[in-house]
Backbone:
C-alpha cells in the first residue's frame, strides 16, 4: 500500500472527527466506505484494500495469544516440544561440517546474468513441482520478505529461491497454508541452503510454516570469519557482482500484488547472486586455510568449517513469542525513559508511569485483537504525548496524537477517553472495559484465527460476555444456532456434580484396592462388609479378604484417583459420561465381561463427546459391513407377504427414497411418532421428509396410519411395546402382544432386544439419552434393562452372538480393544487416567462379596 494514500485516508478521518463529534462506529463505517472507493490496484495479496490478506490464512501457527509457540512435532521422533525438532540432524552437521557443493563450475557465467525470466509460484501444483526441482539440487539460495505493519507478529509475504539455473518467487500469501510442501527440502541435510544474514529468516519460517532449515551456509557468517570490512548484502553485491541495489525497497509493502517491476527485480536480486557469492567466499575460506595453517602449522582451525558451523548454529535458533510480565510493560519502560522530564515531582512521575503503562497495555491488547502492529495502533510518541497532556475530550485526544489516528483509535475512542480521564481505573478494570467495548455491534473487533485463542482465554476467565462478529467463514465457524444448541446441551446433559467421588476401598492389610463412588461404599457398609476409616474423602476397609488385588493382576487402573475433567482436552467446567464400548453391544456381553465398566466410561466435554460419537457411528457402520449385520431395518412387501430384511446402512438413510437402504429403528420411530402426533399441522415439506424415512422402511410403498403405528414398535420386545403404549398413551389400534413381524434374514431377533441401547448422545441430533444420574460403577444390571427408544435394533445382539460363537470371550475382549482404539484415534485424549489401557482386560475373578458377582451371596 502506498504510504501516501493511507495518510490521506487518515487525514480524511481526522477532519471528519473535528467537524462533527460522530461516534466511532459511524466513523469506522465511513472509513471503510472511503477506502473501498479508493483506487483498487494494486491489490493487497488478492484482497481489497481494507481487507487483510492474512484473514484468509487457515493455518495460523503463531496466534496473538499469550500462550507459547508450539513447534513442529515430528511423527518419527518422540521429541518433546521444547527441543528443536531437527536438533539431532543439526548437531550432526555441527560436528561434521559439510563442504559447500561445487556448483558453479558447470554454469560459470550464469550467476552474473539476471536477464532470464523468473518463475512466479502461486499455486499448489507449482509449489509441488518446485519442491521436486529443489530435491534434485545440491544447493539453492533463499531469502524472504516480511510484512509487519498490519500484523501483530508479522508474516512472510514473499520467498525467493534461486538455483544455479532459475529464480523462483513464491507467493507465500497465496500459498500460506501449503508451504509445508517445502518442509522436506529445507530439512534435508544433504541439500545446502545459502542465506545472507539468516537469523531472522530461520525463525520466521518456523513461525509461519514450521519450516526448519538444516544445512545452511550463511554468507554473512563467512564475511565475519574473513574479517570483511562490511558484511551487508549490498556490499557483497557491489564487490563481487558489480550490482548496485536500493535497499530502501526492503521496506516496501510486500503484500502488494502484483509486485511492481522494481520490487520483483529487488527481490530476485536478494537470492539470485547468493550462490555465486557463496562460492567466492567459500574459496576464500579454503585458501585462508592453506595460507594460514601453513604459517601456524599444527593449527587445526578450518575457516570454512567454522563458517559452516556458525551458519548451522543459526539454524538451531527457535522461534518464541516475546513474553513480558504483563502486557505493555517493556514498551512502557522504554517510552517512560524517553518521556521522563526532570521537572516533574515524584508524585507526578508515578502518575505518568502509570498512565504510560495503561496506554501500552491498551495498545497491546488492541493490536492482538485486531492483528495489527503496535505502531499501527498508536505510536510511542503519541502514547508519551497523551500521558503528559491527558486530553479530556475525544477531539483533544486526536489533536494530541503525533500521527493521524488509526481506525483502531477511532473505533475505540470512548475506551481510550475513559482510560485517560479516569486515573483510578485499574489495569484489571481497563481490560474488563476493553472486552466489554469489544461488543461493538458494528463488528470493529472481528474474531479471527489470530485472536481466537486470546479471546477465548480471556473469555473463559470472564464468563460469557462476548458476542463478537465473525470474520471469514472458515476459521472459527460456530454459528449462533450451533452455539446456542451447544450451550443448551451443556446445561441439560452435563454432569451436575462430580462424577468421581474418589472414595477409596482398602483391604484389611491396608492396601488400596480401588477408587469408587459413594454408592459402592454404601453397598459394602450397609451389608456390614466394611468399616468406614476416613470421612473426607471417604474411605472404607473391607472386613473380608477380597479375591485378588488389582495390582497383583497387573491392573492398576482401579487404584488411580480419577479427575473430573474431559479426558480428551482437560475441560473442567462441564463433562458428560461417554461409553467407549457402545451399549448396543455391551448390553449383550456375558455378565462376567461387563464388570469393567468404569474403565470404558470416561468423561468428555460436549465437543469431544460429539467427535467421539461421530467416530463411533462411523465404526459401527464398518462393523455392520464386516459382520454382515445391518444397522438398519427394512420391511418389504413381497407378493403379499411382509418381510423384514437386512439392510446395511452405509449411507445416510435420510435420502433413502429408493427403498434400498432401509432405516435405523431410531429414525423410523422418531419420524413415525412425529407424523402421528403432528402430521396434520406440520409444514408439508417436513411431512414429506419424514414420510420418506418411514417409506424407506416399507420398501418405498405408500404408508397408512396403521403402518405408522407399527413403525413405532420396530425393534421393541413385547414387554417394551406394552410399556411404551402405556407411557405414550397413544390411541394405538394395534395389539402390542400380537404384533409380530415376519422374519426373513433376521431370525428371531426383531423385537427381541431388551434395550436398543443407543448409548451415546450428540448435541447436534435432536435425541438425547441422559443418564447422568446413573452411578457409574454400580447399578450395572438395572441400567441395561431400562426402556430405550434409541438404537439400532437387532444389530448389537447379532454382532455379539457372532463374536461369542466364533471366538468366545477372547472375541469380546478383542472387540472392546478395537473400540478403545477407535476412541483414542478419534480424540487423541490427553488426560486419560493413569492405568487406562487399550489392552485392558475384562477378565477378573470376582470374590464372593463383590458387587459384580452375579451370584452374590449377600
Ligand atoms: P532482507 O533480509 O533484506 O531481505 O529483509 C527481509 C525483511 O526484513 C524485509 O522484507 C523487511 O520486512 C524486514 N527488514 C529488514 N531490514 C529492515 C529495516 N531496516 N527496516 C524495516 N524492515 C526491515
Ligand atoms: Mn530480501
Ligand atoms: Zn474435551
Residues:
Amino acid at each position: 500500500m502506498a504510504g501516501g494514500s493511507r495518510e490521506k485516508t487518515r487525514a480524511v478521518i481526522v477532519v471528519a472527527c473535528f467537524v462533527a463529534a460522530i461516534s466511532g462506529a459511524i466513523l469506522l463505517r465511513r472509513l471503510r466506505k472511503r477506502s473501498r472507493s479508493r483506487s483498487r490496484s494494486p491489490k493487497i495479496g488478492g484482497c481489497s484494500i481494507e481487507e487483510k490478506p492474512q484473514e484468509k490464512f487457515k493455518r495460523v501457527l503463531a496466534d496473538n495469544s499469550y500462550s507459547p509457540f508450539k513447534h513442529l512435532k515430528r511423527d518419527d521422533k518422540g521429541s518433546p516440544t521444547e527441543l528443536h525438532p531437527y536438533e539431532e540432524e543439526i548437531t550432526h552437521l555441527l560436528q561434521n561440517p559439510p563442504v559447500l557443493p561445487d556448483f558453479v563450475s558447470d554454469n560459470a557465467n550464469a550467476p552474473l546474468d539476471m536477464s532470464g525470466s523468473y518463475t512466479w509460484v502461486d499455486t499448489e501444483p507449482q509449489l509441488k513441482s518446485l519442491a521436486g526441482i529443489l530435491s534434485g539440487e545440491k544447493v539453492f539460495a533463499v531469502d524472504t520478505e516480511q510484512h509487519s505493519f498490519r500484523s501483530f507478529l508479522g508474516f512472510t509475504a514473499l520467498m525467493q529461491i534461486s538455483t544455479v539455473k532459475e529464480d523462483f518467487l513464491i507467493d507465500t500469501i497465496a500459498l500460506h497454508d501449503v508451504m509445508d510442501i517445502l518442509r522436506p527440502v529445507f530439512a534435508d541435510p544433504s541439500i545446502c541452503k545459502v542465506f545472507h544474514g539468516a537469523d531472522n529468516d530461520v525463525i520466521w519460517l518456523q513461525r509461519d510454516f514450521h519450516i526448519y532449515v538444516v544445512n545452511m551456509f550463511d554468507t554473512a557468517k563467512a564475511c565475519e570469519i574473513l574479517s570483511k570490512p562490511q558484511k551487508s548484502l549490498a556490499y557483497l553485491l557491489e564487490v563481487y557482482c558489480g550490482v548496485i541495489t536500493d535497499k530502501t525497497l526492503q521496506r516496501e509493502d510486500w503484500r502488494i500484488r502484483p509486485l511492481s517491476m522494481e520490487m520483483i527485480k529487488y527481490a530476485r536480486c536478494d537470492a539470485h547472486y547468493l550462490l555465486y557469492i557463496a562460492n567466492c567466499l567459500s574459496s576464500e575460506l579454503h585458501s585462508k586455510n592453506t595460507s594460514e595453517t601453513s604459517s601456524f602449522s599444527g593449527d587445526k582451525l578450518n575457516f570454512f568449517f567454522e563458517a559452516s558451523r556458525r551458519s548451522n548454529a543459526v539454524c538451531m535458533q527457535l522461534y518464541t513469542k516475546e513474553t513480558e510480565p504483563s502486557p505493555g510493560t517493556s514498551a512502557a519502560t522504554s517510552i517512560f525513559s524517553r518521556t521522563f522530564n526532570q521537572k516533574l515531582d515524584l508524585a507526578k512521575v508515578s502518575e505518568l508511569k502509570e498512565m504510560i503503562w495503561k496506554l501500552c497495555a491498551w495498545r497491546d491488547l488492541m493490536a492482538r485483537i485486531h492483528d495489527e502492529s503496535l505502531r499501527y495502533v498508536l505510536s510511542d510518541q503519541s502514547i508519551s504525548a497523551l500521558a503528559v497532556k491527558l486530553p479530556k475530550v475525544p477531539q483533544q485526544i486526536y489533536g494530541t496524537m503525533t500521527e493521524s489516528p488509526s481506525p483502531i483509535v477511532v473505533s475505540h475512542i470512548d475506551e481510550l477517553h475513559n482510560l485517560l480521564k479516569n486515573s483510578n481505573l485499574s489495569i484489571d478494570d481497563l481490560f474488563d472495559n476493553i472486552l466489554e467495548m469489544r461488543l461493538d455491534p458494528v463488528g470493529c473487533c472481528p474474531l479471527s484465527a489470530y485472536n481466537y485463542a486470546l479471546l477465548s482465554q480471556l473469555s473463559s476467565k470472564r464468563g460469557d460476555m462476548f458476542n463478537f462478529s465473525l470474520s471469514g467463514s472458515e476459521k472459527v465457524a460456530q454459528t449462533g444456532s450451533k452455539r446456542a444448541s451447544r450451550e443448551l446441551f451443556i446445561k441439560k446433559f452435563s454432569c451436575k456434580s462430580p462424577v468421581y467421588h474418589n472414595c477409596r476401598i482398602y483391604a484389611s492389610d491396608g492396601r488400596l484396592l480401588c477408587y469408587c463412588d459413594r454408592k459402592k461404599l454404601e453397598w459394602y457398609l450397609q451389608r456390614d462388609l466394611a468399616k468406614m476409616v476416613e470421612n473426607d474423602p471417604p474411605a472404607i476397609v473391607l472386613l473380608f479378604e477380597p479375591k485378588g488385588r488389582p495390582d497383583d493382576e497387573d491392573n492398576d487402573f482401579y487404584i488411580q484417583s480419577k479427575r473430573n475433567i474431559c479426558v480428551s482436552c482437560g475441560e473442567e467446567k462441564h463433562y458428560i459420561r461417554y461409553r467407549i464400548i457402545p451399549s448396543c453391544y455391551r448390553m449383550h456381553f456375558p455378565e462376567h465381561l461387563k464388570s469393567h465398566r468404569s474403565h470404558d466410561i470416561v468423561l468428555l466435554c460436549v465437543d469431544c463427546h460429539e467427535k467421539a460419537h461421530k467416530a463411533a457411528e462411523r465404526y459401527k457402520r464398518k462393523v455392520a459391513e464386516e459382520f454382515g449385520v445391518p444397522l438398519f431395518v427394512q420391511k418389504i412387501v413381497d407378493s403379499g407377504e411382509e418381510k423384514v430384511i437386512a439392510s446395511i446402512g452405509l449411507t445416510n438413510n435420510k435420502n433413502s427414497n429408493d427403498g434400498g437402504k432401509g432405516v435405523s429403528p431410531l429414525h423410523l420411530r422418531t419420524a413415525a411418532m412425529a407424523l402421528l402426533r403432528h402430521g396434520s399441522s406440520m409444514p408439508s415439506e417436513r411431512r414429506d421428509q419424514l414420510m420418506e424415512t418411514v417409506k424407506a422402511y416399507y420398501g418405498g410403498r405408500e404408508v397408512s396410519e396403521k403402518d405408522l403405528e407399527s413403525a413405532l414398535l420396530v425393534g421393541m420386545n413385547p414387554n417394551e411395546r406394552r410399556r411404551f403404549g402405556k407411557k405414550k398413551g397413544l390411541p394405538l389400534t394395534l395389539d402390542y402382544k400380537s404384533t409380530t413381524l415376519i422374519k426373513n434374514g433376521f431370525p428371531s431377533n426383531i423385537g427381541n432386544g431388551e434395550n436398543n441401547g443407543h448409548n451415546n448422545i450428540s448435541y447436534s441430533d435432536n435425541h438425547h439419552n441422559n443418564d447422568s444420574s446413573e452411578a457409574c460403577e454400580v447399578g450395572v444390571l438395572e441400567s441395561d434393562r431400562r426402556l430405550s427408544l434409541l438404537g439400532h435394533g437387532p444389530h448389537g445382539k447379532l454382532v455379539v452372538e457372532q463374536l461369542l460363537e466364533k471366538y468366545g470371550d477372547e472375541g469380546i475382549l478383542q472387540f472392546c480393544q478395537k473400540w478403545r482404539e477407535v476412541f483414542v484415534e478419534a480424540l487423541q485424549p490427553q488426560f486419560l487416567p493413569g492405568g487406562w489401557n487399550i489392552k485392558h482386560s475384562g477378565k477378573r475373578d470376582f470374590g464372593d462379596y463383590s458387587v459384580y458377582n452375579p451370584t452374590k451371596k449377600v
Remarks:
- The first helix runs from residue 3 to 19.
- Residues 224 and 609 are 58 Å apart (CA to CA).
